[in-house]
Structure formats: C-alpha cells, structure tokens
C-alpha cells in the first residue's frame, strides 16, 4: 500500500496524545485512530510537527507508528524529519517495515540557496532509499526555507520516489497554479498536491488544482466534505460549509504550541483524547481561551451539528 | 492634537497610491483621505509597512505626510521606522512640524535579547525627542523580533512618550490579557492597545481588552462597526458582522506584497485608487486572484451591502 | 568522575572518524583517543557539532560514547543537543551510565527572548535529571541564540547541575570579564569557563579569566601549552606560541563543513585518522586548499616542530 | 573616472568620524582623506556598514560624499544600500553628480531564493540607472543572504553596469576560484573581485585570483604591501608581513560595533580621528580592550614600525 502520486482526498495530520505526566497515551492513540477511520479520510500522517514528533525519542516514535499502522486500513504517512540523514534513515526504514505507506520530510531551517534545498532532498532520498515514497513539506512560515516552484520541479525530477507535495506556503495559491502549469506544459511529472496551513485556504486551494488536504483540523469531517463538494463542482456549498467553520479554524491557526493546545482541547471535548497535555515546551489554553473556543463551536453548530460537543 | 494613551477606536493603516509608472498619485491620496474621513475612523496611520514606506525616499514621505495631515481632521500617525536614528529623527521632526499626532516605530529585525529591544526604544525615543508621542509596533511575524509583555512594560516605563501599542503578535490574545493585568496590578501605567494583523483576531482582541483596531482592511467601516458593537457589549452582533467578512479578510491576510495587491485591487474597485500599482518589489494579483476576490466580496454583500462594489 | 565547576585546562572537541563509505571508523576512533590522552589534555568532549553528532543515529552515538569513555582516563563530556527533551534525556542517561562525566547542551536556533532561553535550560536540566552535570554551549554564530551575561547568570542560579560554560560568543572578551565580575560581586556562583571558537581568541580569553579551552584544533598540544603559559603568567611566551599557529588556526576557522574538512585532513596527515571523510552534508577540501594547509603547517614548523607532518 | 572592471589594488572601507556629541567631524574627515591619499591606495569606499551609513540621514550622507570626493584624487565608491529603491536611487544619483566613481549595494536580509537575489539586483540596477557602475557586496555573515557563484554570474550577466564584487563570503576561497573559472570558461565576463572580511583571508584570496582588498583595516599600508607583494609573486614576503599583523587584524575582526570601536581607537591613536565616538547603537572599547590593542600593536611594531603609535 505504498503511497503514489495518485493519492487524493483528506490525509489529516494527527496530534499525539499524552498523559498529564508526559507518557504517550496509547488508549487515546487507539481511539484517535478509530475516530479518523470513521471520518471518511483517505490516509493519515503521524509524527509531524503537529504530532510533537521532535519531542519523542526514537523508541517512542517507532512504537506510535507500529500502533497506528497496525490499527488503520488507510495509508499511514510518517514524518521522519531529523537533524541528520542517519536518524532519518533509521526511522524511515523501521516504519516502512511496519507497513507505513510513505514518509514526510521537511527541510532544516538553515538551508538558504536553491542548490542547498535541492541537494538536501537528493541526500534525503538517497538516505531513506529509492523504494520509500516521500512527501516534500513546503512550510516556509515554520521552517524559514523558501522553495520556488522551479526548485520543487528540480526535486521532483531528480527523485522518482517523490510522490507528493504537502503545500503550505503562504501565500501559496499561485504556486499551485504554477506547479499544475508545469505538469500541463510537460516540464514536470504529476505529483499529488495536498495542502496544509490548517486548512486556512483550502476552499481556493481546491479550485486551483490541489488534490485535497493534508493538515490538522479538529473536525476532519469538514475537510472531507469541502474536498468532496469542491471536486463535485458544488462551489457555493463548499464555501458555505468552509465559511461556517472558518472563525474557529482561524482560531486554531495560532502558531506554535497554542494552536496545538486548541486542537487538543477540542479532541478532549470530543472524547477522543483523555487529556490535552503537551510535552514541553508546551502552551496552556487559558480559561478565557477555552471559553472562546466553546463560543466558536456553538456558533458552528448552528450550521454544522457535528461541532456540537458536550462542554 | 498630540496622540495620548486615551485614544480608542479605529485607526486604519493607509496604503499609498501610485501611478502605474511609480509616481505617487496625489489625487488618489486625497480621495483616500476623504474616504477615510467619511468612514467614521478615529485616526489614520500613514507610511507604515503596508503604506510601502520603505519604498519612498525622504522627500516623498514628507510630501505625503503634508498632504494627508493637511486634509484630515482626525489625528494622523506617521510610521518613521528607519535603519538608523538620524533618519528616524529627521522624518519624525518634520512630520510633527506638519501637524502629525505621533509616530510609529517598529524594531529592526536584527534585535535579539530583551535588553537590545529595550535599548532600541530608549535610543529611538531620545532621537525623536521626548515631546513626540510614539507607538510601539509589535509585529514578530514580519520583524522577527519577539517582545514579551515584561519587555513592553520596560519600554512603557522607561519612556513617558510611549502612548500606544500596535499589537500584532500572533498568537497574541493572552498578551493583551497580561498587559491589561499589568495595568490592573499597578505595575504598568495605562497605554492604548490597538490591534493589527489585518484584523484577523479583532473580534476576540476587543473582548480581551484592546481599545480598537490599527490595521489595514479594505472595508474600514466593518472595523468601525465591530469595535463599536464590541464596546457596546453586543457580542453576537459583533461576531456576526466580523464572520461575514472573515473569508475575504483572511484572503487579504496573505503576507507581503500579495496581500497589499488584494487591498489595492479593492480600493481601485471602490473608486478610491485610480490604479492598484505597487512600487517594486511588487506582487501582481492574477486574473484568478481577482476573480476569487470578486467572489468573496459578492458573498459578503449578501449580509453587508457595503461590500457590493462594481465589477 | 563527574564534571565539576573546578575543571580547568584543555578539553578538546573531538571530530568523529568515518570510513569513506560513511561507517564510523572505530580503529581511528581508538587512535584518536590515544592521541588525545598523550597530548596532556584535561578532558575530552565528543559528539559536538564538530563531531558531526547530528549526522549520527542514536545507536551510533551511544556506541561511540561507549568506546571513547572506555578507553580514556580523563573526564569525557558528551554533546546531547537534540530537537526535543526526550531524545536528549535518552542519550544523556545512557552515556552517563557508560561513565561520561557530564553533557553539553546547545540551544535550538528558534529561541528568541531571554525567558525562552532560561526556560529551555530549565526544561533540559529537568529532562536529563539533576544528577547530570551540564555545560551551556553559548555559540551565537552557529545557533543564532544570544545569551546576555544576565541570562547565563539566571541559568546558573536556577540549575545547580550547570557547572561550566563553553564560551564561544563573538565578540566575547568582555562577556568573560562580566561573568567573572558576577562571581566577584557574589551575584553568581563560580562556574568553569572554557572557550571555543576554534581558539581564535584563546590568548586574551585566558587573560580575561577563562579556565581553559574547550575547542577543536588540530594541534591540541598548542592549546595545552598556551593555557599553561598563560596561567603561569608567561604572557609573551604564550602569545609567541599562539601567534605562530594563528595563520593556520584562522584557516581552520572557516565555518561549517569546510573548517572540519581542514581539521580532518590534518588529522589524517598526522596519522590519527585513516580518512578525512565526512558524512553528508559534507565539504571537500580542494587540492588548492590542501596545498594552502601544507604551506601554513610548514610555516608553523619553523617555530613549533610538532607542526612538521609528513606530506 | 567611472569605476570599471579593470580596477585593481586596495580600496579601503572608510569609517566615519564623529564628535563625542554625535555630529560628523569634518576636520577628521579631511584628515582621513589625506591619510588614505598618502597610503598608496587605489580608491576609497565611504558610507559602507563600517562607515555607519545606516546611522546617517540623507543630508549628512550627501555632505560626507561631497567632502571626500572633492578632496581625493582616487576613485571614490559610495555605499547606497537602502531599505528601498527610491532612497537608493536618490543617494546614488546625487553622489554620482558629485563625482563618485560608482556605488556599492548590499542585499536586504530578507532575501532567500536565488531568484529573489537576482531580481533584487536587477531592480537596483534599474533604479540607479544603467550609467552608474555598481559593486555587489556579498557578505552573508552580516546580511544573512547567500549568493552562489551561479547567482553572481546571473547578476553580472544581466547587468552590464555591475563591474565589481566585494567578496566577503566566509568561507570563500573556493568561490573566488569558481568565479575565475567562469571567466576562464567564457560563461561570465570579467569583473573585479576585491575582498573584505577585514582582510582575514587576504593572503590566500590574492593567490586565488582576487584583484585586491576592499576592506577596513587600521593599517591600510599593510594591505597595500601584501597586495603588491602577492601580485609580484613574492609569496613568503607577503605572508610574513600579513602574519605579523594577523594577531591584531584578528582582534579588529570582532563583529559589529566592537570591531569598529577597535579601529576607531587606533585611528585616534594614529592622529587621524579626534575622537573614537560612534553613533548609537555603539560599543565601547573597555580599558582592558585598549590595553590589549596596545599590546598587539607593540608586537607588530617589532616587525613593521608603522604600527608603532604613540600611546
């Protein structure tokens, strides 16, 4: 079940549940896997930034991958970004052996020139091996690395095992249009483009040619519906649903650990996570913040009853 | 009409109109001043980042300030951020002589430590002179400078001429709460807090204690109404109006010259600007982008007829 | 043999030898341990940046630590900088169990404010456990994190297990003076200060109050002599020896993988390493570069015969 | 006397003398011009970073350029780096009208991709006009902008008015070799390459193909001699002289305002400047620092009597 460039739909980025004392919460992890399975998704990405991957040690990361891959029937992608290629390779090989469908690789924030970015992905692809499908994570806001469309084309062309772009440049709509233009003019083979940024531009990203969403949002059901409606050409309906969620979606998009705190709070409210604990460095959602989230959810619920969650 | 810490309400950040050949468009500048005057605002900030201030030479900046200050009856604030204190002083003294109410100062992106930030504002306040009221611009996303609440308190305490914070940290709601807490516990004197970030969190910023908005948005009338409703305690009405605009407001919030291109396009559609030209480095709003904006405005117009603009 | 704040002298930072195919070269590793043992050093730091630690996976890092600790009779410090505290803890606990004397921790390049830096070291100290002595690595040029003397004092005061500063701020002479002043005025307990930056300012750092050197240089014998002469008050002799090495020492100080390539080339010439291979991302020392190094060494050898190495 | 790509030799970067109260010291400025004229230089660059250009306002910058250009008979280059192209153009046109030979342009520290760097110089060249010869300042350590040799080739090829590279990448020796290789293989026209970085690698930069030095050092006479000896093929003599100065030259190379404080202190000692004052933000050379400089100069003076300066 290796990931290919034909993938479409919604691949949520999963958070990682912890007990208040910092241990991984395996019961919640299973509950989350089941929740996602029931939400109509097309795959799941674990161990990304949002999944607090850098806060796990190697053994913990492998244990989480084993548990999720073993429980889910959709393709599971695993974030393997690491300070060096040896650690990246070690994790990639282990999770692929466990049945992962592919891996996601973000660049270190020290890269500057076009050639450095291209060389980085060349070395990464070589390190994990040519049989491991990989996803480029293009997230300048967090990584401080800017990849032009031409650089992405170079990476795709050099590395046959590159099958997908997690697009989260910002602004980025014209980038999707340019990349799809490269495919149309024959200068780049097709890759899947799924978009991140918490879904903040998903409505228009779909219209520009994205294949779906690859992002964390506490109501993946909405992402699934918007992607479906958009692909069905039901533009107004897609925007109506998206806009109903946008005030809360925007609230989730507070950068760093606070945005994650919001999402974990809602996962707890939805009965998926037993706790909203984060590992350090962590952010707390204040009482005022929780009340703001509750208010926003109650407003969505007027339109989309799935957002009606017990207080 | 010097700015004081009692200022409240909406102070838009003004863009600068150019002719397609790059010259300042004075007719559009006058039309913009009149438009803002009619929008119920409480002040106007010119020559900020959004106003393409770094792309103007000194003489142009002074000419724009003269023209706007001379035409408007509300307080006019002028951005005087500069690579050095001599240029900052030169501009500040000239625009104050022309009748400006105060100046706005953002930090250079090379500052790192708390002491460096505090020293920067101490030197800036000394350079412009103790009689010139100034606004701290706290905008980490663009400036890469992070000011903790404690650092802001040090700046406020050291510099009697600091009267206002343009708050655009992100995330930043708890920062407002903390700063208002400093005032409540007596550890910091009162300053005005008006918020930026294109208004993306204005709904909750008001509820956390902000005094208003100090940001660019193509429909300042909405900002005025949301601030008024929020201060009147009409929470649901404030959110309803805000949420109706949010899909487009979010679209404006594409960082850098593209977000500005969106706003200038709408100013042109509204008949305020003759052209949406930017000085280099500039971004173009593609035909697809323009169609997306048109679609978003048509959706707002179902609720708020002011967004109904001729195609 | 736990590291204490009484440590003085020279603690070289060790490179890691690889075979040309990228495997760790254990024979060269042993030879390097023996070489350092014979050079009159007071300790050894392994798995730092210079040791290509980020390019190793966890198992490799532990294996190297086991081998070096088992072979040497001086205290061995181990770099445990990691993207998260779980990985840091895992490595720290393992190497301490193997007999390491302490660990070195550099900050992630995303820290900005004073409080963030202090919190980072608080969390790190908690993660590794209060029984593990640690060294602060203060290296703004590489880490982009600036720690004022007051911040270092906060870290030292909060964390009894902090025993040493690897000082490599640049410029940094006055920082040593300020920190020693904190000790003199009783506002900070004593810590060891050993200096890095490839030794570029070792001559004056000793005179400002440093306890020695904690850096990579291909001739640690020179560092040992300069530290000894300086502590004995033989100022001119210390500078004469230092100055004789400076043209080459400066050549080693080319940032990033090139500086390491220079050092590995000389280690190979000295018969310590079988190969000058680096793991990717690597730099090659060109033929021209090698000839330049040879020329520089021949010039040192006129004064210090230890620099006379077979071509 | 327009600058051309045939320029060779030593073009010092001049500091700017201030009175202790911050005013420009015109008498010292004249004395400095005369001093440089007597030092055998081939040109002079004013208003660079080292010249505290960002701390001057426009009128001050023009006044300094007028005074220096009017007094000197060698080509005078003027730094015109600015936050925007309008200010850059205004200064460039004025100083060229005053008789400057060309201008120097460094990139803003926000540029990331290859295309952004190339576009920046295209826009800059257009802004100042095709008749104004310009120098690329390639200084990643300070500007955080990395230009590969291929990017420099694109800039040179696109802009006929680009005549020189101020090379101060670090490490950078192979970059000179690569660029000279581009000329040899016909893929890039010839440009002058003069090197910066305070001269720290001048000895080998000359051997790699540099045309001279374009940097600040308190003894430009040494730079002149090293360039002359190197071009005459007197390798050992060039290195002997360079090495005698290196311990102090290295001491000058403390980044930021401290390095400038060292240089101004020596200019004061040499009787060129009346004061070592800097504008804010400034660094002070401590008493200990001054004693260290005195010691270093006394050591140079054993070999090069020009370094014997009255205490």
TrEMBL record, chains A, B, C, D:
Pfam families: DHDPS (PF00701). CDD domains: DHDPS-like. One of its GO terms (molecular function) is 4-hydroxy-tetrahydrodipicolinate synthase activity. This is 4-hydroxy-tetrahydrodipicolinate synthase. Its EC number is 4.3.3.7. Belongs to the DapA family. It comes from the Bacteria. InterPro entries: Aldolase_TIM, DapA-like. The keyword Lyase applies. The keyword Amino-acid biosynthesis does not apply. Keywords: Lyase. PANTHER family: 4-HYDROXY-2-OXOGLUTARATE ALDOLASE, MITOCHONDRIAL (PTHR12128:SF66), DIHYDRODIPICOLINATE SYNTHASE (PTHR12128).
């Amino acid at each position: 079940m290796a990931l290919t460039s034909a993938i479409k739909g919604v691949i949520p980025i999963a958070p990682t549940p912890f007990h208040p004392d910092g241990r991984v919460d395996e019961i919640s992890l299973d509950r989350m896997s089941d929740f996602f399975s029931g939400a109509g998704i097309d795959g799941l990405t674990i161990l990304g930034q949002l999944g607090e991957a850098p806060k796990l040690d190697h053994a913990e990361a492998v244990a989480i991958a084993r548990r999720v891959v073993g429980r889910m029937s959709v393709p599971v992608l695993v974030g393997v970004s690491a300070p060096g290629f040896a650690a990246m390779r070690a994790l990639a090989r282990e999770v692929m052996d466990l049945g992962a469908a592919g891996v996601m690789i973000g660049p270190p924030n020290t890269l500057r020139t076009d050639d450095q970015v291209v060389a980085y992905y060349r070395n990464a692809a070589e390190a994990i091996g040519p049989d491991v499908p990989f996803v480029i994570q293009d997230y300048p806001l967090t990584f401080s690395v800017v990849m032009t469309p031409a650089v992405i084309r170079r990476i795709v062309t050099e590395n046959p095992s590159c099958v997908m772009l997690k697009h989260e440049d910002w602004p980025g709509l014209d980038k999707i249009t340019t990349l799809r233009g490269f495919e149309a003019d024959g200068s780049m083979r097709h890759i899947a483009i799924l978009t991140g940024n918490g879904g903040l531009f998903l409505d228009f990203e779909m219209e520009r040619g994205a294949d779906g969403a690859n992002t964390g949002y506490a109501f993946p059901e909405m992402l699934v519906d918007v992607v479906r409606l958009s692909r069905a050409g039901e533009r107004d309906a897609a925007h109506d649903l998206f806009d109903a969620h946008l005030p809360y979606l925007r609230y989730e998009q507070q950068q760093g650990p606070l945005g994650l705190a919001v999402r974990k709070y809602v996962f707890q409210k939805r009965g998926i996570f037993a706790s909203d604990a984060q590992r350090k460095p962590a952010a707390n959602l204040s009482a005022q913040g929780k009340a703001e989230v509750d208010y926003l959810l109650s407003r969505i619920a007027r339109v989309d009853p799935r957002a009606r969650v017990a207080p």
